[in-house]
Amino acid sequence: MSPEVEQRDREFHFTAADFERVRTLIYQRAGISLAPIKQEMVYGRLMRRVRALGYGSFAEYLAHLEAGDETEWETFVNSLTTNLTSFFRDAHHFEILLGRLRELKTRPLRIWCAAAATGEEPYSIAMTACEAFDSLTPPVSIVASDIDTHVLAIAEQGVYPIDRVEKLSANRLRRFFLKGRGAQAGYARVRPELQKLVRFTRINLLDARLPLRGPFDAIFCRNVMIYFDKPTQYGILKKFVPLLRPDGLLFSGPSENFLNAGDLFRPMGRTVYERADRPAPGPMAKA
User: Fold this and answer.
1) What would the mean pLDDT of 54-69 be, rounded to a whole number?
2) Residue 261 pLDDT exceeds 60
3) Nearest Cα to 189, choosing from 156, 167, 144?
4) Residues near 234 by beta carbon (within 8 Å), at least 6 away in sequence
5) Sequence ranges of the domains in the chain
6) What does the pLDDT look like over 205-235, one tens digit per residue?
7) pLDDT at 30
8) In this structure, how many other beta carbons lie within 10 angstroms of the beta carbon of residue 2?
9) Catalytic residues
10) CATH number of 3-80
11) Are 128 and 94 in contact (CB under 8 A)?
């Protein structure tokens, strides 16, 4: 299909130059490196904003954005971020975390989930902590962050359609969720005790100084680095080092590797890393 036909089929004018502007803006603002093949995705996600603000083209909308509307910047970033997640995704990571928490029962523990999305991951961490200590009030605090304010609002509510939790074991469902009734039928709510373990906050990993105080015993940064180029990844990982305890663990996604940052983190196996400056290598995560 020719570009002329494509434009006629679209509600708003959206050129290759517009797409390149979007790519530049989201990279500068959030570090996200959009692939050239994402042009249709960008049009589909941003056309609603062009319409809502009453503009006739993407060029007008982007000019409005560049004029400094901070509220719209937030919506722009929210529109272009992807939030695919599930409870206990990559289950082996939670088995490793369970073992580590049981080893460190002598002091309060802190964990940072750096890409919380709609909350399934930090709540999975919280459930793991409860199981490690056999208590709904373990001495564990979790900071859960994301750049997308919309998904953070969902996460804070802790309410999920039944089909989002039905793959959990019957024991976990009974222990950690309340089944909705009446108007809430078909939904499940995370128990208040679990919610109290997690603090949700917006953080842009590109910020020069992350608004966090370490040290953390574990950092989960999974399935987010794939959206950044290697220099951006390195810059983020460099900020992680002082936030992680010398014996802490960094968990990444299955499609991610940090070989370009071998001076910062070394692999322990199964997409788990430790600080490269740790005096002695930790035990390998068993396959």
Assistant:
1) 90
2) yes
3) 156
4) 260, 261, 264
5) 3-80, 91-159+191-275
6) 999 899 999 899 999 999 888 888 999 999 9
7) 85
8) 7
9) 45, 146
10) 1.10.155.10
11) yes
* Closest residue by Cα to residue 244 from 284, 223, 203, 272: 272
In this prediction the pTM is: 0.82
Own/partner pairs, 160-165, CB within 8 angstroms, 24+ separation: 160/120, 160/187, 160/188, 160/189, 160/190, 161/186, 161/187, 161/188, 162/186, 162/187, 162/188, 164/86, 164/87, 164/120, 164/188, 165/87
Helix (H, G, I), strand (E, B) or coil at 216: strand
Closest CA to 138 of 164, 107, 161, 113: 107
Residue entry with tokens 């750096």: 114
Residues 251 and 222 sit within 8 Å (Cβ to Cβ): yes
* Entry field: residues in the chain: 287
Pick the CATH number of 91-159+191-275 from 3.30.70.100, 3.40.50.150, 3.30.70.260, 3.20.20.60: 3.40.50.150
**How crowded is residue 42: how many other Cβ atoms within 10 Å of its Cβ?**
19
Confidence (pLDDT) at 69: 82
Residue 8 has a pLDDT of 53
DSSP H/E element including 190: strand 187-190
DSSP alpha helices (H): ranges in 177-266?
Answer: 192-195, 230-240
Cis peptide before 231 (omega within 30 of 0): no
100 and 218 Cβ atoms separated by less than 8 Å: yes
Res 185 pLDDT > 60? yes
Q: Distance between CA 31 and CA 229 in Å, rounded?
A: 8
Residue 118: Cβ-neighbour burial (10 angstroms; 0-12, 13-18, 19+): buried
